[in-house]
Amino acid sequence: MRRPLIGTVKRASRGLTLADEKSTSGYQSSLNERIGDNALVESGPSELNYPALKERGLTFPRCFILRLLFERRVGMARKQGLPKVPLSTRPDHDRKFYGANLAEVFRTPLYDCSLKNVSGVPDFALTRLKGGSMEMQQAPAYPEDRAMLICVALAPTPVDRWRARIDGQEVSVSHSIAFATTVIDLMKPMEMWAAGPFDYLHYYVSRDLLDRVAADNRIAPVDSFRMVFFERDLVVAQLTKTILSQVRNREPLNTLALEDVSLLVSTHLLQHYGNGKRVLRAQPSLEIWQKIRTEEMLRAHLEGEIRIADLATACQLSPSHFSRCFRQSFGTSVHQWLIKLRIDAAKNLLREPDLTLAEVGFRSGFCDQAAFTRAFTTLEGTTPSRWRKLNGRSAVATDHLVSGELRPR
Known about the structure:
By secondary structure, the protein is an alpha+beta fold. The chain is built from 16 helices and 8 strands. The chain folds into 3 domains: 5-81, no CATH class; 98-272, Jelly Rolls (Sandwich); 332-395, Homeodomain-like (Arc Repressor Mutant, subunit A), CATH 1.10.10.60.
């Protein structure tokens, strides 16, 4: 007669000796290494897939398997009985106003690009925070930081959806407009409350970076900055619009673009919000040889993996001075000019009928076909495929044929 399972469990438990315990310890470690494999576990939380175990050459004493199943059931029960753990944030001394440190507070999607110094700490960072509807809640306290924060509202923020107490002063939304700019000195003690929905782009700028840019431009050391809250700043708004497509599509900015943006933001902060003297140095254009050398280097690095410092060194200028001279000479930023050079290269490649659009985009320096199509359409007003039909080799040949046929005899 078949014995009931419960009796077998009791007898197996009573018959387990010290030697049996030692003999099963090896099996325990062996199974622990494999138990995370889904192929060894059935759909139920405490059922083992014995055929799969056997196929992998794993055989176990009955007493060991029964004990394992019991421990798994107890573990699941304990786990289900635990209270839900609230969202954890980093310790106060590790918390910073950029990247995951900032995004984790509001459980928001993260876009994060940063430039790190020699110590591995970001001197400049871009972070996008976007969240849905939520009640007003206080953000965790942030320690004082030698940095400035520029917050740009990508969508209008209602007047009752944000407030803060900074250095003892109560502040709130002053203008509910898109691209409203907030400038905060992170060395000031701050408490902040926010509600959703919201969509912000944060520029984090360290004081070390600001000090270097100030020295390059012969600006007296800046001890404090003027703070504003949801005001119009046309320079910051325009700069944000130039990179917004990449931010919204989560395309990482390359090194050249990040450095270009960081220098423009730093110079603007020093000139318009710092208490130091304005730039004393004149703003000349690049000399002809400097323009030629710069374009040569940019065409050789269409992917953007070149630093502003490399271009500046080749022109015998400091990085921030070079950035200003470049803008004066070309009428745009280094990064925007690089995109123009990429499109010029893409046009030549589009005339090759054997190349796919993905290959054209890659050879032109874009990270993927989608990024290439967006940039091309923005600058040219038409898609790459449409442009190819109108300007490719076959289109040119057809034009010559038609013009020859219509020529009067």
